[in-house]
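Private note to self, pasted from the team thread so I don't lose it. Backbone tokens:
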């Protein structure tokens, strides 16, 4: 992870390649990048002409040629104007390409993260992939920006090197070295001097700056952990307030920030050492070409002020191109850390997808049955919760799952939903049917109450009267006039009220298959019985699979699946289902 090795560049190519090879806008991206390259080459050409200009202009000044000096000033103004136009245009097209690339990558990563419940499986597997939200929102932005800037900078250095190395080689012929009454000429003297200077500087820079790669990687993780812990407090503010857990939360916040603080100091000290070297290296580069050219100026008088200025400029261009790593090492270290975070995130998603491919799948077939054949459900450690489960459920039938806490009831529901990655067997769902799963704690998205009620399927056409009727039936009529209210509803409503809204969703969407994972556990028994009675009355053709502990739920189901938590199970008929029973809910005061 701390080296620019073959594995790093192989993984980097896997991140870069898709946009440029298979995205719908790949041809536009290629043309824009080609334009950026052309502008870069044009800027190098202008720099080359300005370097040639140095010799003419300074020689005109040295010989007091007024007209020639003013002519050269006009030429410089034209060259500078062209350079500015090219530089501004290059920046514009680079930023345009950057945001388009980031948009495409964001969609790709979001699709991969959300597909097949990957976001959930990554948490279940506990693979150590921290803060995927930051990797998608921030690391992708940094990656596209840094990658383009580094690529363009590297390209600029290469073209600059090739453009100026020949000029510097020719200028080297003017440099003669006096030694014991004789003069010597070393072919390419200035080029070799620039190469030795750059190689020496690069080696020292790499030695000093190498730890910055890991330090920057850690800093991103520590900062993301710190931010996420505060976000968790915001999401669970009521629970923390009831616990009076502010002191403990403060302790956790400060502990995480201490990691940010300590690691940042390590970055400061390491960066300071690197900056000491880089600054000294850069300042010495200003005088170094003059120093190696002084024998030709003082002893042999082979060059004038203009030639000296041209040598200094050409040497600076070649030395700068050769010193790309020295001048960009901090950026390269940050870029390496960002690429590491993205490639490990991508590898984690791919590993989850491999596990999913080896996991049982929800099959779709014509017919009115949900079938479970030889289903075995395990924990990540291999412990079996349910072994070789077989049953069939027809539309309109109702099954209650019971058992001890931790016995696998909720895990079985996850397996029936197809999101639990540990198990074998086959689950078959009728083709075209869209089931609805209600967990114990409903998810209420940010937005208006209307958005909350129509989640997750939405509505083809607005029907506010239908929404109000559903609220009235579940005892939440007080909210009927707040459909357009935008609030953080998960904090505004109690858990019991949230569960009532979840039942309202059921009445709105009318799913053919409904799975309830202790979806009424926060309600008292009369309210729970009333809601189940409402389901039987309003949705007589909906198959219901419930998880619950209360024996009162037996009256609303036809069969009971009992789990013992050790893999064993029994299926029992219930003699007296209360079909059609509907107790009326009293309006909820909330």
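Design output:
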């Amino acid at each position: 992870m701390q080296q620019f090795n073959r594995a790093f560049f192989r993984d980097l190519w896997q991140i870069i390649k898709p946009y440029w090879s298979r995205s719908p806008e790949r041809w536009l991206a290629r043309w824009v990048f080609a334009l950026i390259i052309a502008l870069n080459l044009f800027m190098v050409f202008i720099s080359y002409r300005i370097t040639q200009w140095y010799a003419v202009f300074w020689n005109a000044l040295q010989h007091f040629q007024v007209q020639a000096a003013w002519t050269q000033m006009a030429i410089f103004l034209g060259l500078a104007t062209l350079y500015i136009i090219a530089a501004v245009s290059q920046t514009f097209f680079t930023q345009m390409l950057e945001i388009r690339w980031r948009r495409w990558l964001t969609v790709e990563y979001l699709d991969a993260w959300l597909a097949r419940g990957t976001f959930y499986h990554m948490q279940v597997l506990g693979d150590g992939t921290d803060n995927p939200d930051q990797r998608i929102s921030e690391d992708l932005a940094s990656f596209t920006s840094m990658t383009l800037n580094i690529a363009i900078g590297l390209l600029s250095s290469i073209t600059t090197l090739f453009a100026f190395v020949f000029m510097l080689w020719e200028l080297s012929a003017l440099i003669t070295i006096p030694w014991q009454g004789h003069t010597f000429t070393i072919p390419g003297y200035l080029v070799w001097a620039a190469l030795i200077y750059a190689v020496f500087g690069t080696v020292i820079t790499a030695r000093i700056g190498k730890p910055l790669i890991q330090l920057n990687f850690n800093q991103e993780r520590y900062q993301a952990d710190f931010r996420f812990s505060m976000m968790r407090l915001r999401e669970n503010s009521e629970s923390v307030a009831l616990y009076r857990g502010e002191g403990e939360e403060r302790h956790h916040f400060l502990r995480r920030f201490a990691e940010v603080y300590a690691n940042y100091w390590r970055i400061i000290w390491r960066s300071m050492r690197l900056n000491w070297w880089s600054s000294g290296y850069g300042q010495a580069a200003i005088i170094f070409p003059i120093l190696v050219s002084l024998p030709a100026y003082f002893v042999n008088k082979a060059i004038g002020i203009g030639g000296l200025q041209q040598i200094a400029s050409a040497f600076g261009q070649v030395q700068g191109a050769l010193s790309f790593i020295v001048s960009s090492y901090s950026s390269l270290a940050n870029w390496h850390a960002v690429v590491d975070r993205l490639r490990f995130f991508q590898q984690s998603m791919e590993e989850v997808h491999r596990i999913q491919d080896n996991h049982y799948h929800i099959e779709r077939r014509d017919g009115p049955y949900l079938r479970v054949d030889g289903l075995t459900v395990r924990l990540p450690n291999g412990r079996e919760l349910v072994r070789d489960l077989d049953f069939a459920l027809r539309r309109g039938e109702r099954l209650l799952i019971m058992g001890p806490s931790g016995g696998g009831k909720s895990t079985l529901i996850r397996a029936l939903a197809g999101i639990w990655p540990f198990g074998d067997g086959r689950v078959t769902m009728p083709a075209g049917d869209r089931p609805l799963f209600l967990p114990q704690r409903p998810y209420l998205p940010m937005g208006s109450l209307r958005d909350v009620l129509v989640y997750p399927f939405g509505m083809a056409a607005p029907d506010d009267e239908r929404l109000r009727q559903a609220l009235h039936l579940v005892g939440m009529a007080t909210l009927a006039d707040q459909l357009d209210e935008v609030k953080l509803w998960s904090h505004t409503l109690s858990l019991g009220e949230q569960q009532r809204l979840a039942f309202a969703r059921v009445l709105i969407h009318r799913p053919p298959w409904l799975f309830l994972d202790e979806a009424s556990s926060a309600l008292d028994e009369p309210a729970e019985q009333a809601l189940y009675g409402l389901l039987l009355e309003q949705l007589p053709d909906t198959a219901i699979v419930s998880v619950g502990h209360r024996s009162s739920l037996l009256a609303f189901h036809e069969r009971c699946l009992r789990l013992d938590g050790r893999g064993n199970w029994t299926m029992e008929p219930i003699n007296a289902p209360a079909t059609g029973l509907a107790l009326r809910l009293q309006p909820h005061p909330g």
